[in-house]
Amino acid sequence: MPATSPPTRPRLRDLGIAVGTLPTGSLNAITDVPGVRVGHQTIVRGDGPLIVGDGPVRTGVTAIHPHEGSAFAAAVPAAIGVLNGAGEITGRSQVDEMGVLESPILLTNTFSVGEVHRGCVEWLSAREPGLGTHSFVIPVVAETFDGTLNDIAGQHVRRQHAVAALEGATGGPVAEGNVGGGTGMILFGFKGGIGTASRLVTVGGVTSTVGVLIQGNFGDANDLLVEGVPVGRELTADASDLDTIRRGRRAEGDTTGDGSVIVVIGTDLPLSDRQLGRLCRRGMLGLGRTGATGRNYSGDLLLAFSNHLANRVEVANRAPILTSVRLHDRELNIVFQAVIEATAEAVLNALLAADTMTGRDGITARALPADRLAEVMGRYGRLGSAG
């Protein structure tokens, strides 16, 4: 499924609800950051009782290219942050050590990390001279668990799906909800998945972009917040909505709300890996703004990168001394705000974009009722024109 598939449900701002005060980019998506491309491969097949290896299948893979070219040929400054570590993101030790990202970023389900990693290695090896003989790469692949709806043990994501997501990645509007790596995910007791948002910031007279994409699979329904409004508690206070929430739990009888989220933060601002680590920590505040608490079995992993042209590390550059530029730390406050706002809105866009889905054994994750959300926000005086 391409990144440009049209949405079928409203986004948050379509309901007149805005997060924060900063302006969004034209798409309100991570692809507002110049050069960033997103691709999805969505796998939906079968219904009925679970037969491991056969289905039902509700899964996929999402690929993010950090700029318009090859991340291996031109690595970018990056950092990874962990709120709660019951999850996996490959390549973390190298990103921590070197402070750069030299591969695309791929998102999938927990049991498919290996196959997606293999697909990325094969894709890169076919395109980068000397890779595997004179140089190496450690792809960045992150996961969340979709086994409530999907035959996850069947490992239906194959390396060719990863290759197709990488090949099909484009700029422009980004499909959200039940797509790519987010296909089988559940968020705050409702159907979840992929969500994205962006913010524009002006520093020193220059306007730049901060974009966020999340794969959301976490949260208890009662914890859900929308701009401070206890939407989750309002919905569960109604008996019919409570039944909907219960049927959308991550597992039968599970009321913990444990789960995971991957947050990818991209920007064209000139930032160092140290500063990008600070953005990861602000992304955690954005998650908290929606009611996330980083529960015991939650894998809350964040990656931030800057694709500013002057800071890319060219693999062919053999100069002994490299130069780079970075924003002065005193200018970061507005960037922190942008990350917090865009992360929170990306989570809420993932909720609103996702359609009701029935997976294995007839388990159903219900879509967040947009009309009820608007009604609750209006009752709290928080509904208006978001622009």
From TrEMBL:
Molecular-function annotations in GO: aminopeptidase activity
Name this protein carries in UniProt: D-aminopeptidase
Keywords from the UniProt entry: Aminopeptidase, Hydrolase, Protease
InterPro entries for this protein: ArgJ-like_dom_sf, Peptidase_S58_DmpA
Root EC class: hydrolase
UniProt-listed Pfam families: Peptidase_S58
E.C. numbers: 3.4.11.19
Annotated source species: uncultured Thermomicrobiales bacterium
Family that this chain belongs to: Belongs to the peptidase S58 family.
